[in-house]
Design brief:
The longest helix has 25 residues. It is built from five helices and eight strands. Helices cover 35% and strands 21% of the residues. It has 221 residues and is an alpha/beta fold. The chain has an eight-stranded mixed beta sheet, with helices on both faces.
Length: 221
């Protein structure tokens, strides 16, 4: 997985990028947890999601937001981090001008950044949110949410209690044309220490189902 450095809004950003051997492969961008709490692109769940997309034939990138690892700049309370994610997406789209779809996957704080990006980039076709911090941030900006996705919660999460995520899921599911695939992992806390494989399996199951459905719809046209 080659290391890449690309221009961000506050200096150069460091990433790891896998380029698919498939022509016009879909893209996936993976976002890490909170930088002030040790979140980096090498986080176990971030890495597990990255490898899942790679396995499914995607061109995929994970990267360090500003001030993390070798990325320049400093933490900006979430605002600058959304701009960093947009810059990462711009870089991937420049390298892959004819990509067949675009997915965004985030864990914890990365899920918040990913959902903010979803609202700004209409070309995003699907999303994965693992333990979105629904009790720490207002997700009211998801109105209307442009498309459905996969949300994962741990029933033993002490930082983001499962009922807070369920409330967000219920709210999204009332929106027209939006269906959230909600999965609760028994025994998982916020770090999902023993559940990385489960997260990877859920992601692969959800993404392959949605993409197969899309292919069927195209064939029916």
């Amino acid at each position: 997985m080659p290391e890449v450095m690309f221009a961000g809004p506050d200096g150069r950003l460091e990433g790891r990028y896998h380029h698919s051997s498939e022509p016009n492969a879909p893209l996936a961008l993976v976002l890490h947890p909170h930088p002030l709490h040790g979140g980096t692109m090498n986080n176990r769940i971030t890495y597990a999601m990255y490898r899942s997309f790679e396995k499914m034939g995607f061109s995929v990138m994970r990267y360090n937001s500003r001030g993390v690892g070798r990325s320049q700049g400093r933490y900006d309370g979430g605002i600058g981090e959304i701009s960093d994610a947009a810059a990462a997406l711009d870089w991937m789209q420049m390298v892959n001008p004819n990509a067949g779809g675009l997915w965004i996957a985030g864990y914890s704080f990365g899920a918040f950044v990913g959902m903010q990006l979803l609202m700004r980039r209409p070309e995003i076709t699907g999303w994965i949110s693992v333990a979105p911090p629904a009790n720490h941030y207002d997700f009211g900006f998801l109105a209307p949410c442009p498309c459905g996705g996969l949300m994962i919660a741990g029933d033993s999460d002490e930082l983001v209690p499962e009922p807070a995520i369920r409330k967000l899921v219920d709210k999204l599911n009332t929106q027209k044309g939006v269906s959230v695939d909600y999965r609760i992992f028994a025994g998982a806390d916020h770090v999902f220490a023993n559940h990385a494989d489960q997260v990877a399996e859920a992601l692969e199951d959800h993404v392959s189902t949605i993409m197969a459905r899309g292919a069927l719809a195209l064939a029916a046209d």
